[in-house]
Amino acid sequence: MRPPVPCTPQRGADASLARVFSPFYTSAFAWNFTHGMIHVLLPLYAIELGMSGVGLGSLVALPVVLQLAFNLVGGAWVDRLGPRNVLYLSCLAAIAACAAYTASAGYAGLMLGQCLFVISRASFWPANWSLGSQLPGDRSRNMGMLNSTTNAGQITGTVAGGSLALLAGFAGSFLIAAGSCLVSMGLTALIRHRHARASGPARGMLGIYRRLAAMRPLYFAMACAFLSVLPLTVSGAFHPMLLVSEGYTSEQIGLLLPLRSIGAIVAGIALARWVRSAADRRVPFWCCASIALSLGASPLIADAWWLGACLFVMGLGSGLISVYFQMLISGVSSVEQRGSAMSYGGIGWNLSNMTTPLVVGALADGLGIHAAFVLLGALLLAYAVMLLPLHRWAFPAGGRGETR
Fold first, then answer.
1. How does pLDDT run across 292-315, given as a tens digit for each residue?
2. 200 φ/ψ sector (left φ>0, alpha ψ -120 to 50, else beta)
3. What is the rounded distance in angstroms from the CA atom of residue 220 to the CA atom of residue 285?
């Protein structure tokens, strides 16, 4: 008599658990843990050093401008060297950045650290997205899991960074952040991946991007990438201002703000399967509309449950449209140019980081924080409507953006 065969659901559950703790996802978690720590440690350390508001703002804003250029270079590196080798470079740059933070006692040292970390970020994302798009299995589920993992790593790192700054000091905390990136680099060595080299004559970086610039779907991907990071920018910089104006304490604000990231994690785990094809324009439209309504409604009712619900819905929308634009780029690009395509479509991500703080800040200064949120919501509703004709332009012949 044959032994009983384990039931399929159990095998599927074991496979899913093994996938979550695979070297690829755990490596991404560890790098983003470092990212989250630096996100909170840098401004705290700059304040500890007595830096002015202008100095702190330039530390945050100027490297984003550099990242826009470095992203295109990083994408070309991914295609030429392979995504796993570029992840090694990203980890080394982050470790060097943490060393610069630890050794610095002024603006120049911190800016050096920021520039090194820009190189790390600009090379990590195209390599990470490219590698994630080539994993075996359902691509939408893989990319959803990847986005959930990176969000979880950033949340955990942010929480740990604030606590460790009190327990271990800034130097010790930056060393711990470097150690996490060292772990990420070790896990990257365990990722099984064979780099697909381009067939035919080699093309330079300018030639590759000239070809990508002629691909209409990538501009729709840029528009979606712009929207995907907008909730993070607003919730990180301006939701605290709104909540303070409503009388919330710092402890209450600390409990409310993570709800956006939790929504993004839920979207990646539970809702990513809804993103099946770039031909379905309903996903970006409703994601944009939900983010717009959540932002516009945030200042209208001061109840904590309402504000928490708005933040959670913003996270759901941003998490889903993140999966969508990554799926779209994966579907219209070849594996050999996936890194460059991810970088080119991701330009919208960087443009959002550069422009959104300026626009919302100007609205808040001129009209007040409550009116700024309402007006931003109205602008995003118009943006959602604009996505419909833009989608028709990007896919003129009913193109589906199928996976190659």
1. 999 999 888 878 888 889 999 999
2. left
3. 12
